[in-house]
């Protein structure tokens, strides 16, 4: 899944599911949404990355030469798009 719109929707869907499971409010998702203000804590982000790895088949954070910590939703989606396997659909 390298289509940016589909990738973005998958990320948003997983974040929404996690927030709803924790009875937390779901924010309005824009590319400039600051991740630390999304309602997810560090454990929530770890669960998010694990779920996305199961869904997408890869974890871009383990494939990076240098660690990058995205600050916004747009940055987060860009990291996933940039590190998507070439054979992903």
CATH H-level homologous superfamily name: ACP-like
Helical proportion, percent range: 40-55%
Question: How many domains would you count in the coordinates?
Answer: 1
Under CATH, the topology can be stated as Non-ribosomal Peptide Synthetase Peptidyl Carrier Protein, Chain A
The H-and-E topology, N to C, reads as HHHH
Care to count the β-strands? Answer: 0
CATH architecture: Orthogonal Bundle
Count of alpha and pi helical runs? 4
Overall geometry:
globular
Structural class: mainly alpha
How widely separated are the two ends? 4 Å
Oligomer: single chain
Radius of gyration: 12 Å
Low-confidence stretches: none
**CATH classification class:** Mainly Alpha
Q: What's the overall average pLDDT, rounded?
A: 91
Molecular structure report:
This protein is mainly α and 89 residues long. It has a single domain (4-82), classed as ACP-like (Non-ribosomal Peptide Synthetase Peptidyl Carrier Protein, Chain A). It is 53% helix and 0% strand. The protein contains 4 helices and no strands. Helix 1 packs across helix 2 (42-56) and helix 1 (4-21) packs across helix 4 (73-82). It is globular, with a radius of gyration of 12 Å. The protein starts with a helix and ends in a 7-residue tail after the last helix. The mean pLDDT is 91.
